[in-house]
Amino acid sequence: MTLLTxxxxxxxxxxxxxYDTRYRSATIQAIAMIAFMLLAAWLINNAITNLNNLGKxxxxxxxxxxxxxxxxxxxxxxxxxxxxxxxxxxGLLNTLVVAVLGCITATIIGVFVGVMRLSNNWLxxxxxxxxxxxxxxxxxxxxxxLAMAILIETLPMPRAFKGDTPTATMDLFNxxxxxxxxxxxxxxxxxxxxxxxxxxxxxxxxxxxxMDLIAFLIVLGLSIFGMRKVTARANVIQEETGxxxxxxxxxxxxxxxxxxxxxxxxxxxxxxxxxxxFNFRGGIHMRNSLIxxxxxxxxxxxxxxAEIVRAGILAISAGQSEAASALGLRPNRxxxxxxxxxxxxxxxxxxxxxxxxxxxxxxxAIAVGYMDITGTLGGITMNQTGRELEGVMLLMVVYLAxxxxxxxxxxxxxxxxxxxxR
Amino acid sequence: MxxxxxxxxxxxxxxxAGAAAAGTLDDVKARGTLNCGVTTGLVGFAAPDADGVWGGxxxxxxxxxxxxxxxxxTAVEFVPTTGKTRFTALASGEIDMLARNTTWTFSRDVDxxxxxxxxxxxxxxxxxxxxxxxxxxxxxxxxxxxxxxTGTTTELNLADFFRSNNISYxxxxxxxxxxxxxxxxxxxxxxxTTDASGLAATRATxxxxxxxxxxxxxxxxxxxxxxxxxxDNEWGDVVRWTLNALVTAEELGVTSANxxxxxxxxxxxxxxxxxxxxxxxxxxxGLDAEWAKNAIMSGxxxxxxxxxxxxxxxxxxxxxxxxxxxxxxxxxxxxxxR
Lengths: 422, 338
Description:
heterodimer, A: mainly alpha, MetI-like fold, two-stranded antiparallel sheet, 9 strands, globular, B: alpha/beta, D-Maltodextrin-Binding Protein, domain 2, 5-stranded mixed sheet
């Protein structure tokens, strides 16, 4: 016989939502949620109503209209008869170019400066401190404008290369022209090129892929695969005999050999820039708007990255480097083999937000006339079509997508280097 | 059910907000100042002087409207806008009118929903190059680097011009006239293109204006004029007829010098109607009887404003040309005040 009886069945009353602590927080959250959604609905409704009153209902049809304007830096084919959507795509690629270049350079400079700032050499450490503090504490827009002004005002104009007694000459054995309209460098050309594959026909998002590039990537991939095999074999021999066979000449040959053979097969030669008419023609033209933006964004973000790297290194206890010294490791090997691998775990998460900042700061490009997506979709297109709300919404979606992709990739990398606890 | 009621109420509120925004004339009167969009600085058209007081051809239109509506030509808040920001500023209500050498085009009128109230300057797009470049025609510009203000009709004309002549160019987009000037003078671009009047105004500020030439080609029609938002016809009428009053005043010989004696009454009925001594034109606009008199007194008639700011006596040195009165063979023509 059991003495326990079931507790009396409680019936649910509405007042319990407020007075019963089990339900109260859920009630409050639900009310807050409804209030928030009402506010959002009101804002959206207000915008739509007012746009309708203005006679401009929301529509994205403008994207298929003819853009009518030209863009100087274009990675894909584009002319003024293409659509606004294609102009936006060209702008997006320009944004990505400067973001990728900027992130790479900022990381290299930042890591270098961050390590140097901890140097025992008083002068070097102080110089790096001055660098970090100047770049970190001045708005990046000013750095961008300053970089552009320096490029425009100090470098010679293409006209100076003309005539019997030119005041300016090309550098590096007459292959590189540095002008105040940008830097012209030789471009790789193939006389027996494999051609391009064309995707998406005549659509606004059409693009070409160079078969030469794909061939190179395949050959490079095979080379690296071969190099790994050679290294693995060397490891096996070392384990068995204690002697490591000499591999560096094989590795070097594997890395460059196949690529050089492919280059000869494709008829590789360089196309040099030449002064024709008003400007240099031929070669790769890196416009000074790109250089100024790239330089300023890299130097500015590198100052923050340097601080992150310094903090990461200081977070590793001194005992680690003392232990490494006790084992007889030299300081630079200590840094490379002991400190940095551990510091990376501290460094990477704040690094993500700096990459995101750099990408978002690249929207200041219009200050130097660099046609990024803010300049095309958010600038000229918006102005010519009068679709401010739609344009800005698209821009926000694009930047959101870029930022989320960057943090996705970086989080994946962070997971792969973080301390594996067993 | 509750949600429907709420959304209905919100819609009503939204509509009411839209309706309240329509009476720009009342807003300006209640505010006591006119918000007028101008350029960020183009000497002769709109630029602040050494004391920070705005002056110029476009600025005079703003001042005339302020004088007509508020009786005070200084009651203007000048809002500098770039080629890119001007339309958003006007559409959002940040400014009441835009007087910023803006070209009247079909799509701006119909698609962007603006009302151009008239044309105060007939212009066309031209090219300026350094003299030592040795270029005498725009068709010789194959491969040239061209500085151009973004978000303007000139940008589209430029693309069309080079495409139709089958020659290539490299556009360098810039935001303001000052930036364009800096890049052009440093030689970062070979050519600077914008409206011919703007080129003349820019060249006038150079250290050595004689070293630069304007090419003979005028590649487009650029009728410039003040504009307001669609949907507020009363306000559009006020700005339109203030501009017409300045034009008519020149045609009828009313100047800032003789307006005092003329407003005492003349034997020309149109002058009397214009200056408010006869008829009730001011009341029809919702303004007082002396609206046009105030507008003309603020900076003179159209011809005086032209001569003082951009005429041949000024460093900018523009001839009247197309912008002469129709009685002198130009296109400046106002409907009658009747």
